[in-house]
Amino acid sequence: MDERNFIGGMVMTQKINIEEQATVLTQELDWLSHVISVRLALHFEQETNYLDISELPVPDLRKKGGSYANFVNSNELNPAERLVLILALVPHIQPSLLDVLLTKNHDYDRRYSEFGGILMDGHLGLIPTAETAMFIIAGENIYARLHYQYIFKTDHVFYTSRILDSATNSKNSPRLSGKWLIANEYVDFLTCGQEYTPVYGADFPAQRVDTSLNWDDVVLNRKTMESLREIQYWAEYEEEIMQDLGMGRRLKPGYKSLFYGPPGTGKTMTAALLGKSTGRPVYRIDLSMVVSKYIGETEKNLAKVFDYGEKQKWILFFDEADSLFGKRTQVNTANDRYGNQEIGYLLQRIEDFSGLVILASNLKENIDEAFTRRFQSMIEFRMPGVAERHQLWQQSFSQKLPLEAEIDLWDLAEKYEIAGGVMMNVVRKSTLRALKAKRKHIIKKELNEAIQQELYKEGIIMS
After folding, report:
1. Residue among 325, 361, 360, 362 at smallest CA distance from 345
2. In angstroms, what is the C-alpha Rg of the chain?
3. Which CATH architecture has domain 206-380?
4. CATH number of the domain at 386-457, please?
5. Cβ-count burial 17-37 (b if 16+ within 10 Å, e if not)
6. What whole-number distance in Å separates Cα of residue 439 and Cα of residue 431?
7. Which of 4, 31, 180, 224 is most buried, most CB within 10 Å of its CB?
8. pLDDT tens digits for 225-282?
9. Can you tell me whether residue 214 is helix, strand or coil?
10. pTM (2 decimals)?
């Protein structure tokens, strides 16, 4: 099993021993349980062998492996930080540990407010809040509470690494009243070292895009390939540029690129290859699911995608982007005004996104000029020329199902000015026909018929 570990903001992969991982978590949970027992005994002035929770032995994780221990060690978490980290994981792996904090104050016939915590539908146990965490590490000692405030500020690694649930407390409520919970996408990582994959749907309108191809399988012109290398260079040197060279004060975070050109020229495949070559997952945003007739739903649907993308260093790919990022309408109605507000929101989220964003469009002119100024690159995907079409025809068929001798690929390349996507549909059709007929090769007649069908579908009339 692979483990992904946080090192300097990057995600590293290494082997994980699930038994060692379980041992580490068990030690941390037992320690937290003991700390809570002592904290309650001290709080209620009950008999205990300890004057303070700091007297309790802390498990030594310095030589331990596994994603949890690696996160603790790489971020040099102190005992208090470790306690509140394991606390945030408890509802996911051992919720009964917090049942003791559900004790009711009989004088007021309600739970003890100093314990913090909230109850949620669908979960019988206590969901800790930041107040719960503060009570465990500081009790009601004002000096200790002031000292540990730094843990709950947004510049702490718990927030900057985004391992905490991004949901915040209600407006105007006390700062420590928000839930203290590991975000779902990090539970699998901290427990089993596995990457979390969100489920595609109306609430999460993005799907991962993968490819089994390599750059050698792509046929693009030299200028396009040079522009794509710039994106790869940015992915490789981004941290050095923004942090080591101190350019983060002057440059906007992330990289935004527009891919434009006719359908079938390889825009989506190239985005997938960029992800594969840079080690970053690519997620294609389904714009048809993003745009909602309900006010506020578009922002809500996209917020999760952007948030996950920031946390996991995704490449966000907006296909057919002109349908949403095209020239904005004149404001004549309330719907027009809200539509433009939606676009403004999306533009701002993309501009502030610290990762790589790719927008794909058939025509560069379709994209609003107010947005094109924000691109770091605009890369044209042209229709392949004769030589490129010949290369595409050559490499598209299976070597195990050869073409009959009468088929002249140079002739096809010169005669039919079509994109690679259309060619692959032709290859699929002609291959299926050969297999159906139980032939060991593809014949010219059926290849030509497949070409004609695709031309007709594309609205191309050949003389």
Report:
1. 325
2. 28
3. 3-Layer(aba) Sandwich (3.40)
4. 1.10.8.60
5. eeeebebbbebbbebbbebbb
6. 10
7. 180
8. 999 999 999 999 988 998 889 888 888 888 999 999 998 899 999 999 999 999 999 9
9. coil
10. 0.69
